[in-house]
Structure prediction request, 601 residues.
Amino acid sequence: MPVGIGNTNYRHSDLAKLYGLPEQIKSDADEDEDEEDSEAPSCSPSSEHKKGESGSSLGSTDLMKLKALSDGPPKELKIRLIKVESGDRETFIASEVEEKRIPLKDISIKNTASEIIRSCKAARLKGKFKESYLLPAFSVKPIVSKEEPIPREKLNPPTPSIYLESKRDAFSPVLLQFCTDAKNPVTVIRGLAGSLRLNLGLFSTKSLVEANADQMVEVRTQVQQPADENWDPSGTGQTWPCESSRSHTTIAKYAQYQASSFQESLQEKGSDEEEDEDDEKKPPSSSETPNKDIGKIIKFGTNIDLSDPKRWKPQLQELQKLPAFMRVSSSGNMLTHVGHTILGMNSVQLYMKVPGSRTPGEQQLLFSEHQYWPRRLHGVDYLTGSWWPVLEDLYNANIPVYRFIQRPGDLVWINAGTVHWVQAVGWCNNIAWNVGPLNGYQYQLALERFEWNEVKKVKSIVPMIHVSWNVARTLKITDPDTYKMIKHCLMQSMKHIQILRDQLVAEGKKISYQSRVKDEPAYYCNECDVEVFNLLFVTSENNSRKSYVVHCEDCARHRNPSLTNVVVLEQYRIEELMNVYDSFTLVRLDFLVRNRSSFMK
Prediction:
């Protein structure tokens, strides 16, 4: 069949018959066929005016043209030809292309990436686009009400403790379910090292010195005092702030201090027994001061980095014996998908202690509000401060406290959002790390804390937007709630990026593409510490070409409203993000059972 260009106009009904399209879908052209025929340009001489007609007069054809133009510009039904291969034959089918523009407020995770981008372009918003990454329907923020006082005996609930008898117990799915259950703020797993035959000797002071004697140790100088007390420096009253001075030493030198402290304790124990006998013979003094005696000064070796796989290979390999959900790195651990090491978060840290060494109150930095978190006590900055709660204050505020002792070989699982603080009762070494189980409760808590930190201008150690995109690229999600929350976060991220990008282009600002490299960290604003994803606002420090600083849009415009001397870098093409978004779908569990080897994409 010959193909002509521009000299023939097909009606929709003709196309419908030709390509098998439904005839009930009509275009404006079908409603007034003669008008459309007269308007279309033609290469044929037959469309010219007849000879002898005056140039000022209008024929019937001209009147039709004017009438057609008065009805507005012509409308088109776009048709896409799709090639179909059948054996050795190639045929084409016609498919209608209808670009729907959905209002931005009506966009949901049910829409495709193309529909989201089109809605963003059509929105034409003025000012900064601000919408939460959270899916409100799944919020786990507690409703704090004035409840009845909890009886004193219930303010010290028993700590859930699981005793393991075999390796099989450690790898039981029931253990994973119990630990990650939101109803259990803490779980002590007794005898884990024994059931898995972990060689804890690799973490003894002697082994540590032999492995890396010169490894740096952060030292916190503290005052030794009972675990349920926290006296101010003058000893006149108990307080919440828990301050300590910081210095540094090596593993070898701290090991010497730890050993000498133990020897001194043995000597003091003998002398204390003699003093107690003498004190029994003396009458009480009437001039005793009510002030608390200041305890002895101790040193706590903390934040010792064990992330280097070359320097700490035996220790890290030993931890691979743990169940997958407890490991430093596993496919189901969100922190594994950060893509780079965050010291103390997705890497192992070691703590070398003497009696009284304190890790002050903290909430898991990845996680969000515990049900008692909204309560503000004693003006302490819980996000950035160092504090040690006074137990009576907690009990008076109707807050229950779990208290327990961790023995050698026990593992303590601190669940998402649980506020906790730790004090050593002996000479010991501990290791610790964070995990982020990929479930809906965990993810929602993490994202809530992420946004709360942004409001409070506090840096989120875990870059949740960066992590969410990495999870979508690499994992198959089977839980519907988890899928919906991650998908919503990706959708909001795309909206933020596209709207900001369109505003920058409209201002005439050049956007330069610079793709990410392997192990490149996530970026944070140099001023406000908010995570900066994809569109980076970069300036040179002190006009140096070797030193560059990343800013968020707000801080960049605060420095210069017109963004002069600010380079905007784009790390992902919008098409790449669109492909990730559309490819991220909910996977049926029965599909994964049949395809266990393809859990990772």
The chain has a mean pLDDT of 81. The CA atoms of residues 82 and 240 lie 70 Å apart.
